[in-house]
Structures are given as C-alpha cells and as structure tokens.
Amino acid sequence: MRYMMMHKLDESVPGTFEPTPEFMTTMGAYFEEVAKAGILVAAEGLCKSSEESARITATKGKKTITDGPFTETKELIAGFGLVEVRSKEEAVEWAKRFVDVFVQHGIDVEVDVRRVSEGPHEG
C-alpha cells in the first residue's frame, strides 16, 4: 500500500519555506533512513506560493486561475513523502518520525497521512 505524507506549513511565518542547512541535514538523514528501509517511492519539498505558482478553482463549471502568493492559506502544502508500506499504522509511525524532524528545529507543522488510491476497484 502506498501512503502520502503531506506536510503543511504556515507560509506567513518568516523562514518557514527557507530551511536552514541544519534542518536540511536532519531531513536528509531521515529520508536516507526511509530509503534504506526500502519503502521510499518519492519525496520533494515545494517552493513558497509566491514562486511561480497558480491555483485553479472550478465552481459550477467555471474555472478561475489565481497566481500566487496565496496569502489566505495558513496551511499550505510544503512538500510530501510517498512510501510503500504494509499498513496505515506503519505509515503513521514513519510520519511521526518525519514530524520529529520539524520539532527538533522548532518548526510547527501539520502532516496528513493519506492512502493513495489504487484505482476504481477500491471502495
């Protein structure tokens, strides 16, 4: 089963989207461990919404395109990790360790752990 760990940060907090070298070292070590465990599918961080971003919203068939920054968004997806694990519980255990990377560096974070849909055969 694949699970996505999406981390959300408050873009209005200074420095949130400019990680320190120390933070990057800790995060790199975490994902190296995930890779060595053989469960890493992909992982990426995202740039601030002010950097070449757009949001497309469809309401009643009408599309609206809004260029960043998205100042009204307090919980902006800042990156993700995609892992292949045996259960939700295993995904949550890895996600808790992912959160620890932020906690060690004094960064408030919210991480959603979501199972990836494997196709129309799932309920």
Report on this model:
The chain is α+β, with helices and mostly antiparallel strands and 123 residues long. It has one domain: Dimeric alpha+beta barrel (Alpha-Beta Plaits, 2-Layer Sandwich). The protein has helices at 21-36, 88-104; strands at 2-9, 40-45, 54-59, 62-67, 76-84, 110-115. The strands form two sheets. A four-stranded antiparallel sheet has the order 2-5-1-6, covered by helices on one side. Strands 3-4 form a two-stranded antiparallel sheet. Strand 3 and strand 4 (62-67) form a beta hairpin. Helix 1 runs antiparallel to helix 2 (88-104). The longest helix is centred in the C-terminal third of the chain and has 17 residues, at 88-104. The radius of gyration is 16 Å and the shape is globular. It starts with a strand and ends in an 8-residue tail after the last strand. The mean pLDDT is 92.
**Poorly predicted parts:** none
> Based on the structure given, which CATH architecture is correct?
2-Layer Sandwich
Termini separation comes to 15 Å
Number of helices: 2
CATH superfamily: Dimeric alpha+beta barrel
Q: So what's the CATH class?
A: Alpha Beta
Q: Strand pairing plus helix content: what structural class? A: alpha+beta
Shape: globular
Percent in strands? 25-35%
* Biggest sheet features: 4 strands, antiparallel
In round numbers, the mean pLDDT is 92
Output the CATH topology.
Answer: Alpha-Beta Plaits
Along the chain, the helix and strand elements come as EHEEEEHE
In total, the number of strands is 6
Summed up, the domain count is 1
Q: What's the helical proportion of residues?
A: 25-40%
C-alpha Rg, in Å? 16 Å
Spatial sequence of strands, sheet with the most strands: 2-5-1-6
